[in-house]
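= Protein in question =
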Amino acid sequence: VCEGCTMCCNAQEDCYPTEEKWMSYMHLAGVFFACIFGASCILVLAVFTYDKYRKSQLPTASTSLTGRDTKYALTLIGGDSVYQFLLGKSRIGWLIVLVTMGVQLWMLFLFVEAAEIDLTSDNNDLKYTWKCLRDKAECEDKGDLDWQGWAVFGILMGAHLLKDIINGSKLIVLSAKERHDAKTRMRLFVGGWILVTLTSFTVYVSTIYNAAIATSNTDILVNSVVILFIIDIDEFFYGILGAINQRWVDIMSLEEERDEEEGANATLQKNVAELQEQNRLSRQRNKALIEQNKLLRDQNRLLRHEQNVPQDEDADDAIPCG
């Protein structure tokens, strides 16, 4: 690469601008992770402070919601992902999560490396889309990628990843609730942070990779679909584990605990219904006893009246002596 040149061309006379970047994509990825972690910590601190302030202003009865929160967290993190193992206490489950996350990050960083604009390296996929013809003073960009391709790219990213970003943020908010113990908060925070980080990093990788190699509107769609495939690996791993031993997966993913809780709730509801029915029958029996008691009192009054009437008539008919 010649110093001072504005274009660098290969043997096929395809060229690319020699722009100097202030930071490589690899270093920028580190800054990206730090920003996501910092924003997550700020969110937790803000929610924790607000929750504490609200309780001081509007005291409520202390009600345990940890069981409901666990079910809610399981729904947020996904019932078909190995990342739900984060909600459990098994070290094997956490190891599976770390391995899965490592595999996904490793694959994504391959695309980051391939997107680096290093004209002296052969390890990138950079597309030389410029043509510098000898009979023209200015070079021309022959790429067909325009705003429509980027618009479809944004729609595709949002439709596929926005839900995970929202659910991850909700997990982070849930981790700030004062009703949880320290270990539960940590598990919820890590689960939410991983979900938000992987999803946001996928958007970052897709953007820089398509900016480097996509030359048409269809290219940007194909590249995006390939990268989005990586974000679903956790679900594929979950399916593989389920095929090997579904019973073990249910224990690791708290499915069994959730089923037991639902069974206990169903039993409790059944017992409550039986008690309500017994109470209703008792009220009916009490009402019948009251009616019978009333009838007995009326009959007793009538008998006393019938016994008193003949005595009065004999007293009136009696002839006084003397």
Observations:
- The mean pLDDT is 77.
- The beta strands are 7-9, 14-17, 130-131, 140-141.
- The two ends are 159 Å apart (CA to CA).
